[in-house]
Amino acid sequence: MTEAPAQSFAALSAALTGFRVAELWGTGQVEPYLAAVLATVGDDVVARLLREGDEALGSPDPRQALQERVLDDDRLGPVARNVIVLWYLGQWDPLPQDWRNRFGASPLDVAGVVSPAAYRSGLVWRAIGAHPMGAEGPGYGSWATAPTLPAAG
Amino acid sequence: MGDRTDPAGGGIAVADYDVVIVGAGPVGALLARELGDDGTQVLVLEAGPAAGRTWAEYQANVEQYLGSDAKVPNSPYYTPQYAPSPNVLDIRKLKDGVPSDAGYFVQKGPLPFSSDYLRSQGGTMLHWLATCLRMVPNDFEQQSRYGKGVDWPISYDELRAHYARAEFELGVSANVEDQAYLGITFPEDYVFPMVRIPPSYLDQHIANTINGSTVPLDGGDAKLLVSSTPQARNSIPNPDYDGGKGYRPRGAHGAPYEGLRCEGNSSCIPICPVQAKYNPLKTWEQVGPNVEVRTQCVVSQVLHLGKAGPVQGLEYIDYTDGAPPSKPERVTADLYILAGGSIENAKLLLGSDVPNTYDHIGRHLMDHPYVIAWASMPENIGAFRGPSSTSGIEILRDGSFRSDRAAFRMEIDNWGWDFCTFAPYTDVEAAVHGNGNGKGLFGSALRDHLADTVPRQFRFGFLYEQLPSRGNRVEVDNRYLDALGLPRPVITYDVDTYTRAGMAASRSLWEKLFAVLGAEDHTKFSRTDPGYLTHDGKPYTYHGAGHNVGTHRMGDHPENSVVDSYQRCWEHENLYLVGCGSLPTIATSNPSLTMTALIFRTLESLRDDLGIR
To answer: Is the dihedral of CA A79, A80, A85, A91 positive or negative?
Structure first.
């Protein structure tokens, strides 16, 4: 894989998740997730997704453009939403049946945690001011203190 | 003891071992260590694997959990084909008259028995929560005081010193002043090994809001008090312990400097990654050379005379995964101890057709039906941080109402709605997919939504006592066999109106608490839930608590029980049945501490039998 698709994937992922690009690279999951998405939905869909993502992010209103060009698109929307779930939970959810009927089913399109490392990297735990259950314990007595939420990028 | 040669020089049959223990879980570990240290030759036969004997093996279990799609209690642990374990994923809603044989259990209903256990060295206490409540004194006299259930053959006072010993073995963190309620007493100078686990921010908020207020219950006003829960997880050692000698916390098996404090990994069930929570592997690490452990050996028969009298031996099947199992081998001992958990003990005895004159074996199966009520606080209360539960309401565990309805305890749960709605997974999926309406969130709006909603989640868990009933039982049936051709547990189970009336009382409590806390009630019970039931027209869904109690209950006479108060089988004097199966009633405390205390009483009798002084 060349560098460019991973850069595009990271930038798109940041816009989709509300986390900074550097935070996503810091998880170590940019390349594993891109590889998982490529293997599951194929080069063509991913190329379109990254192209439309690049275009949207370069536009004057990236948020609106992402909504229209990616999330509202019949082909790209469900894949983009799965990418969000992937980042937040470290797991792949099966694509909707009508998507599979129209754009092709893949034997890899099944529910599952990508890896223990992917689970540990789930963004939901950061978003809620917690830590992945079973990992990164914040220390003795931490649960007794007032909760805080990390500043969003 | 310990010398297996025949002193008479032949002719007299000499047993292979002094003691054979069936099951290498928490009971087997403690008994093996104690008897081995006495100089007794002990064989332990464990049906399951020997996972987690080293730090590296244990970490492989942690990784298996982290990578599991369904993070259920047994998910970190390997279960071999020849020693299957029940799994909560196999619990089904039962149809009238149609047994479910999904998974290892065969469930005849009318309601499903909803708990699991784990056949493995270390046993089910690998995935326990580590709650260590003592029973209250009246629990031992439930029939005399309330006309319900049965009395125990022993009193709280007789067990009190053994409770203290159990609190040492398990390493309990608690403060005496929090635990002396409803008649529970301690010696004047007693302190727990470690100070109490810090109550969560959620606990503190609830305590500050409700302590001292009342709720109308049973025609009166019940006063509310949030209590810190005693827990077998490492906190700060108490310098006053043991007359000022102090206490040294025990770290992980194979990594003694790991887990000396709870680090807040928030995964006590199913696995504490640093072993700050007690698990029986820590006891196995202390077991000496007089003890031989054979894992992947399933005991298939208890050999007997066909009438009351001593057990003659055990047969077991040694297996290797993926290979055909061996022919049964025979082993003999002076004493036999079944410590496989209540359901496996009953299954083995019934499958061996062991004489059972008064027909109590397998009967009086109990659990704590566990109902969850869940809600959202007005503010962030820090959900998904810390041990699952660090406080509860315990002062409603006893009272004159027990003549009419079940008592309960209430856990305050720190892990949001994970058990009831699969939060935060379902929160993420619902927000991203817009609940299917195409209005899904992304970017900072998604992140802000999750940050605003999920940390406000909390829940209460209610554990109700269940009366011993002859109809709630484990049986065996030749139509239902496992991969070794051995019987699977066939379970008949129901929840009676006494327990359901307890659920109704708890509803008054949770509705009042949610109102006082200004919390938004999200509790939902669905007809499709396997544990769905109703009482007085109102719905409840119960889950299993993993507290598998009964099946060989203790009593003061063979007519009313299987074992005596030392857990010796009335009909077979060299056979002990040890564990939660011996509890005559379940009351409201999580049973592991009481089970552990009883082990020390049993050791007195075993040592007498073995001539150990």
So the answer is: positive
